[in-house]
Amino acid sequence: MTDDIDIRVTGRAGRITFTRPQALNALSYDMCLAIEAVMRQWADDDEVALVVIDAMGDKAFCAGGDVAELYRTGITGDYSYARTFWRDEYRLNACIADYPKPVVSMMQGFTMGGGVGIGCHGSHRVVCETSQMAMPEAGIGLIPDVGGTYLLSRAPGRVGEYLGLTAARMGPGDAIFAGFADHYVPRDRWADLIELLEASGDTAPIAELAETAPDAALAAHLDEIDRLFAGDSLEAVRASLEAADGDFAATALNAVRRNSPLSMACTLEMLARLRSEQATIRQALELEYRFTWRSQPESDFLEGVRAQLIDKDRNPQWRNADGPLPDTAVRHMLAPLGEDTLTFEGEERLMKIGFIGLGNMGGPMAANLAKAGHEVTGFDMAPVEIAGVTMADSAAEAATGADVVITMLPNGQILRSVAAEIIPAMSKGATFVDCSTVDVDSARAVAEEAEAAGLLAVDAPVSGGTGGATAGTLTFMAGGSDQAFAVAKPLFDIMGQKAVHCGTAGAGQAAKICNNMILGVTMIATCEAFALADKLGLDRQKMFDVVSTSSGYSWTMNAYCPAPGVGPQSPADNDYKPGFASELMLKDLRLSQQAAESADADTPMGALAQQLYAQFVESEDGKGMDFSAMLPRFEKRHRG
């Protein structure tokens, strides 16, 4: 056992004490292994009622992971040590979060990085007057890891984005407000508290000795934080900070300017993915591992450690420091790892999957499932080859013996035809997941047929386009039973960034239709506004700077800007080659109006958007262009 940690049982408590105060109790690999080993042992020990984790010294509970060895091995090209360290550290973080007994952490002084992973996932998190917490990883080219993204995604408002991008420190009141701690107990009462915990094996004394925490500065600035950090891209957040007045915004902007652009952009993306109520600590850790697994060769991590901790020149040379960060960079860092995916004890990941429809969307989705280790058999009417996918001679053959069959098909008529072929071939108890975008009536009819045959059924259309399919960043809108969604959810987590269970059969299609009606309408409005700005002599960049941080904010403006050279990279910067083709938007708008007619809903803006895209695709030059190519269309047109 390492000398840097003292492990023992005292009374009813398992005790873990960090004993390297001279190093601010920095967490080493050996310490991680020792903690996990003993916690798994204590989980089955009836004599241990709870676990107490504390540390020697006044300056720190644990100021972070010991990154010196990660740097030393990384600069030699040996990435295996760091990957193994992070893998086992994250498994320990999950063990603490899911522990079957109370875990009490006593966090004085600095608790940062790896210390957060040990101290902030337990059931009873205690701070005192000296406590200072932070997630400073963006300052060394990493992301808030050890489950930090999960905690940040649960913080009030946009506090998580603020803390993750600025690395701001939290005092005890802030830590409780942000969800990193639970109880404030003055330090001079800690010895008494631990003695009571050891004697009783009961956590009740914590609440009895707790006092009101100092005021949270974060709470006082919450409205300002929400306004400044509302952007869904790093460029939008920077623009908001640059346009703001006041000391708070200026301090935040200076912090953002110091940190790695790639790290901050990935942090924003991760928090967006994890904000769903269904997200878990394990999903956060698996997502974090995607970044850290790639971090040494492909991020700013080694440069950040060099500048901050090795040479200490405080002058890191960040990638993309002087220009916009390519959207592909974030997608790459957070793409699924395939066979290197982080797994946890007791997980069963592998399934036999049939995948029917391997076009521009289905092909990359099937490939990501195969990369993750699943046995995928595919079928498509066109001859295709997908890495890791075994091709079948028919849809029925692909479906035979599969645990899950996924379809990605052009329309409801084809879905009904394929369903009639594969449902009889599927095994009872298997799950039919349709990811096509079709009419609600077809989705419900196929679900009824599947359920009548003893199958589980999910309609789960996607949003995110071909880029999202390739990068594994799709959003799934799912309809079906709770049981069916639970089976499909691990697969959605591989293929996408978010899955929302919208309700019973057909609800996924309904959500997709409503979402894309909004998208079509807002894209037209955004393109009209840019064309109007041109004719009024308003600079496009100035317009973007205003609208992207004020009431005109929208996804079509901030994340998918139709004006070339403005905002984050989008199809507009690639001659409008489609990320989401205009004809697909027309298809979805027609589905929305079909549904509106069936439901007797008045949707005049949706109807007009359908008319405009029909004209663009069928009578102009819009076919084969991205749906944002409406902008050059409006540029050429005049009123009347």
Please explain how this structure is put together:
- Pfam families: ECH_2, NAD_binding_11, NAD_binding_2.
- InterPro entries: 3-OH-isobutyrate_DH-rel_CS, 6-PGluconate_DH-like_C_sf, 6PGD_dom2, 6PGDH_NADP-bd, ClpP/crotonase-like_dom_sf, ECH_dom, HIBADH, HIBADH-like_NADP-bd.
- Residues 14-321 form the Enoyl-CoA hydratase/isomerase domain.
- This protein folds into three domains: 5-333, 2-enoyl-CoA Hydratase, Chain A, domain 1 (Alpha-Beta Complex), CATH 3.90.226.10; 349-505, NAD(P)-binding Rossmann-like Domain (Rossmann fold); 512-635, N-(1-d-carboxylethyl)-l-norvaline Dehydrogenase, domain 2 (Orthogonal Bundle), CATH 1.10.1040.10.
- The chain starts with a strand and ends in a 5-residue tail after the last helix.
- The strands form three sheets. Strands 10, 11, 12, 13, 14, 15, 16, 17 and 18 form a nine-stranded mixed sheet that branches. The protein has a six-stranded mixed sheet with strand order 1-2-3-5-7-9, sandwiched between helices. Strands 4-6-8 form a three-stranded parallel sheet.
- It is globular and about 80 Å long.
- Helix 1 (29-43) packs parallel to helix 3 (80-97) and helix 3 (80-97) runs antiparallel to helix 15.
- It is of the alpha/beta class.
- The protein contains 29 helices and 18 strands.
Largest sheet: 9 strands, mixed
**CATH superfamily membership of the largest domain:** 2-enoyl-CoA Hydratase, Chain A, domain 1
Helix content: 40-55%
Summed up, the helix count is 29
What would CATH call the architecture of the largest domain? Alpha-Beta Complex
Which percent band covers the strand fraction?
5-15%
Looking at the structure, the CATH topology of the largest domain is 2-enoyl-CoA Hydratase, Chain A, domain 1
pLDDT average, as an integer?
93
How many discrete domains? 3
Q: Rg, please?
A: 26 Å
